[in-house]
């Protein structure tokens, strides 16, 4: 995606890997349903705005629950862009949102979402270390009011100790998830 794109109400299918270039914003409005094919991914090098509403969630799900899609990957440094994911429902997506190693954005808000049935043996939501060299000012990261349930995956905030990153993790419901680390790596995981 080479220029700003806004998805209006309707059903969209994602196959393969799609890229949102740096300095470009993908906006997904309420009333949108996105169906991910097996292993489909949307890589965001720019900005992402998912704008659902309390009774009009953006639906993001796999076309086939037995062959799930990968979800969104936030990649690279784009300090003039934001990532806002508000009022979305992720269902049967392996890794709904991943922030790759050495990422950076102006601000991040992941609020009021439902993340369920992420049947993946790893992290469904993963925030890796930011790019400390290219990040110019503090990143405010909000993870608030979300429900994470009925999954076999986890939430992972790794290597986030930085004076340039503040994470507000508040008022989330995490319930009915199965801890797979024990079955994969023994009781000391």
Question: Would you kindly provide a brief summary of this structure?
Answer:
This protein is mostly beta strands and 189 residues long. It has one helix at 181-185; strands at residues 5-7, 10-14, 17-20, 25-29, 32-36, 41-44, 47-51, 58-62, 71-74, 77-86, 88-91, 97-99, 104-111, 114-116, 123-127, 139-144, 147-149, 154-157, 165-170, 173-175. The chain contains 1 helix and 20 strands.
Report what the structure shows.
With 189 residues, this protein is an all-beta fold. Helices cover 3% and strands 50% of the residues. It has one helix and 20 strands. It has one helix at residues 181-185, and strands spanning 5-7, 10-14, 17-20, 25-29, 32-36, 41-44, 47-51, 58-62, 71-74, 77-86, 88-91, 97-99, 104-111, 114-116, 123-127, 139-144, 147-149, 154-157, 165-170, 173-175. The strands form three sheets. Strands 1-4-7-10-13-16-19 form a seven-stranded parallel β-sheet, with no helix packed on it. It has a seven-stranded parallel β-sheet with strand order 2-5-8-11-14-17-20, with no helix packed on it. It is globular and about 40 Å long.
